[in-house]
Design brief:
- 5% of the residues lie in helices and 58% in strands.
- It is mainly beta.
- It has a single domain (2-752), classed as Beta Barrel (Maltoporin, Chain A).
- It has a 22-stranded antiparallel beta barrel. Strands 3-9-10-7-8 form a five-stranded mixed sheet.
- It is globular and about 85 Å long.
């Protein structure tokens, strides 16, 4: 019934759109945005799929320097930190993963290259042409498959036209200092180079210094164009992300006005009152957390015009070197991880009078060595892993014009992933005290070793079918059914130690329109997603030993298939040139999500049932210690996490012309979101309530446009907004939430030369 209501409403709006077009067919007005979401250059309005685009200039204007900043720009996406990792959710589809096994459910691509590590979206948000957010399964046009969508970061490329560049500098509260610069230089008629860099520094928002920023990054590019049929771009980038890293606030909040961190004495005092209390061993969060993460990448892209088609070849290499210590959820996380990936994508794309087509091959190889230690004092886990992934894929998509206005779309993809691991794990549970006990409380900590060996293949064929119809010169209707999958995920254990792939089928109907002499844009999309075998990550039981009486299970942060869900929604994107100098933008998304089936097993190291707002029943499975217990959890009927029912981004921009050709630009914007759960515990303390977060910017640009000076403020309401929620593994019910930035303000200078 809900599907019918939304589709009926959308069809009504589409009919209304066509009638409006007949009144004002002329062109002019709103700016066209060029995207490459379908592996070819086209305007955003001509791309028959759900995609949002953010220009590089807007990213600068909005002080975006890391992936987590994107949440306030695109309502459909939620980006949250998890230690040094980044968790990306799109319409409720994503990955709650924070270890070496984790993979994103939303693909992150840099200049067409898939970056596999959850830590990869770091040190990249500078000197960008644009960012594209693709919603729903991708794969028939892309090298790497993605079930929930893709986040495409496109850098600014070398320009052959002339010498130039820019310098941006920004200062703000919390001792914030951000600067970025780029230099573009033609070297000859056929060669051009571009150098760019970024430095970001800011004190932590939390009382103990956590939630800070400290990043420096460099990128160099060399472009070649023989002015005939061949162009090549070579790119290399390096970034270091430092500082104290992310932290969390114990819940309920100890202060509604101050952001109190995990190692603050007030937090520690409260933490020690939560059961189990001393003399049971306790971990005390320290202020010695740090990040020293290095990222290096190299990409080559060659485009060769073969006459009948364009051949594109993209070989790439990336190394992610992580070294960090943190206490975001009160316990110690100590990780050293080195990952190297190589990939090559080769594709042909061409057009005829009736067809537009793309066909490609993709190879991906990754090796990861990780040493991870998670210490909660009364339970600890040491993981030493050697992981490898190898993937092969063939993909293609064809658009065929039946008439001048009506087109059919068909796409197919075949993927084979091979995943291998050789991991050693130690579970170190607390089981009691050395007799006789008081007054000497000497804890007994067991060491339970496990060797996890895996060599498994995951094969899947995914597809897309759709139609496109030009209802009028500036009105496009489209509908599609597409499928996507996310490969199975490994974890530690001597028995079954991997999940099966998760699958998503997306049904989409949409319309893109320009009206009123090109002064009004109205884009609409209704969607229904069938989400099967969702992978969830949590502390659960995995087999660590076999006995004549049956298997013994130990606690591991594992990934398993637990959920089947439906996601129903509507997105409306409106842009109106309300005057010669005024622009109004409204992006609204409605989501109705529900787990049709969501069941998994939870491990309790201390015995009591886990504190979860779901049905919990004990099982007869045997834990690794006498006091441990394993419970069956059923969260069926709950909504998906990070999926607010309503989210709206409204902004207004106005230019005031001054004498002599200079101008003042005013920007006002606000983000409104309804409540959403932040974790699969579905607890009230882990729920973000509805909120409104606004920003403002006032800038001056002289007639020469050589520079711009701007004053800005973000989160004018100083709203306390949570981005993530983590429950202590050894203190059931003890919740730590991570925070989005409070009110920030500053000045920015942008110089062009």
């Amino acid at each position: 019934m809900k599907i019918a209501i939304v589709l009926s409403a959308t069809l009504s709006l589409l009919v209304a759109s066509d009638l409006s077009y007949a009144q004002a067919p002329e062109q002019g007005g709103l700016e066209e945005i060029i995207v490459t979401a379908q592996r070819r250059e086209e305007t955003l309005q001509n791309a028959a799929l759900a995609v949002s685009a953010i220009s590089g200039q807007r990213l600068v204007d909005e002080s975006v320097s890391q992936a987590t900043d994107l949440t306030r720009l695109v309502p459909s996406i939620q980006v949250a930190p998890a230690s040094s990792f980044t968790q990306i959710y799109l319409r409720g589809v994503g990955t709650f993963g924070a270890n070496a096994w984790a993979e994103q459910g939303v693909a992150f691509n840099l200049d067409g290259v898939y970056l596999s590590r959850p830590a990869a979206p770091a040190g990249l948000f500078y000197d960008l042409e644009r960012i594209e957010v693709l919603k729903g399964p991708q794969g028939t046009l892309y090298g790497r498959n993605a079930s929930g969508g893709a986040l495409n970061v496109i850098t600014a490329k070398p320009d052959f036209e002339g010498l130039g560049g820019y310098f941006n500098a920004e200062v703000g509260d919390n001792n914030a200092f951000k600067t970025s610069a780029a230099l573009n230089a033609p070297l000859s008629e056929q060669f051009a180079m571009r150098l760019s860099g970024q430095y970001v520094e800011r004190d932590g928002f939390l009382s103990d210094g956590y939630d800070d920023e400290e990043t420096w990054a460099l990128r160099g590019q060399l472009g070649f164009d023989n002015q005939s049929n061949t162009s090549i771009t070579l790119s290399a980038d390096f970034a270091n992300v430092g500082g104290a890293g992310s932290g969390g606030s114990i819940m309920p909040l100890l202060s509604t006005s101050e952001y109190i961190g995990p190692s603050d004495p007030r937090t520690i005092a409260e933490y020690l009152t939560r059961p189990p209390t001393p003399p049971v061993p306790q971990i005390i969060a320290q202020d010695d957390g740090y990040q020293d993460n290095d990222f290096f990448g190299a990409i080559a892209e060659a485009n060769i015009d073969l006459g009948f088609a364009m051949l594109t070849v993209i070989p790439a290499y990336r190394k992610t070197d992580l070294d960090f210590v943190g206490y975001a959820a009160s316990f110690l996380v100590d990780v050293v991880e080195v990952s190297e990936q190589t990939s090559i994508e080769a594709r042909l794309g061409g057009e005829t009078e009736l067809t537009t087509w793309t066909a490609g091959l993709y190879y991906f190889d990754e090796s990861t060595e990780a040493n991870q230690f998670f210490d909660q004092a009364s339970n600890a886990t040491l993981i030493i892993s050697d992981l490898a992934t190898e993937s092969f894929a063939a993909f293609g998509q064809l658009t065929y014009a039946l008439t001048d206005q009506f087109r059919l779309v068909a796409g197919l993809r075949s993927t084979r992933d091979n995943k291998v691991q050789d991991s050693y794990l130690e579970s170190r549970p607390f089981v009691g005290f050395v007799p006789p006990g008081p007054p000497d409380f000497i804890p007994i900590i067991l060491t339970i070793p496990t060797v996890a060996i895996t060599d498994v293949d995951f094969d899947e064929v995914t597809w897309k079918a759709g139609i496109e119809y030009d209802a009028a010169e500036d009105s496009l209707l489209y509908a599609s059914v597409s499928t996507g999958f996310k490969s199975g995920i490994l974890f530690g254990g001597s028995g079954q130690n991997y999940s099966e792939p998760e699958l998503l089928t997306a049904y989409t109907i949409g319309s893109k329109n320009r009206f009123l002499d090109n002064r009004l844009q109205l884009n609409l999309e209704a969607f229904y997603w069938d989400y099967e075998d969702q992978q969830i990550s949590h502390l659960g039981p995995t087999q660590v030993a076999s006995t004549p009486g049956g298997p013994i299970f130990g606690p591991v942060f594992l990934t398993e298939n637990a959920g089947q869900a439906t996601i129903l929604g509507l997105e409306v994107d409106l842009v109106a040139q309300v005057s010669d100098h005024g622009l109004l933008s409204v992006n609204l998304q409605y989501l109705d999500t529900e787990y049709d089936d969501f069941q998994y097993l939870a491990y309790s190291t201390s015995g009591p049932a886990p504190v979860i707002n779901c049905d919990v029943t004990p099982t007869t499975l045997v834990g690794a210690t006498p006091i441990a217990a394993i419970y069956a959890v059923d969260c069926s009927g709950k909504p998906l996490v990070n999926a607010p029912e309503w989210s709206t981004n409204i902004s207004y921009d106005h230019a005031f012309d001054l004498s002599g050709g200079s101008r003042i630009d005013l920007h006002l914007g606000t983000l409104l979101e309804s409540s959403r759960y932040l974790s699969i515990d579905f607890l009230e303390l882990g729920e973000q309530d509805s909120y409104m977060m606004s920003n403002a910017r006032l800038s001056y640009t002289p007639a020469s446009e050589r520079y711009t000076v701007a004053a800005f403020a973000n989160n004018l309401e100083d709203e306390r907004v949570f981005s993530n929620s983590l429950q202590s593994p050894v203190k059931p019910g003890t919740i730590y939430n991570q925070n989005r930035p409070p009110r920030t303000y500053g000045l920015r200078l942008m110089v062009n030369f």
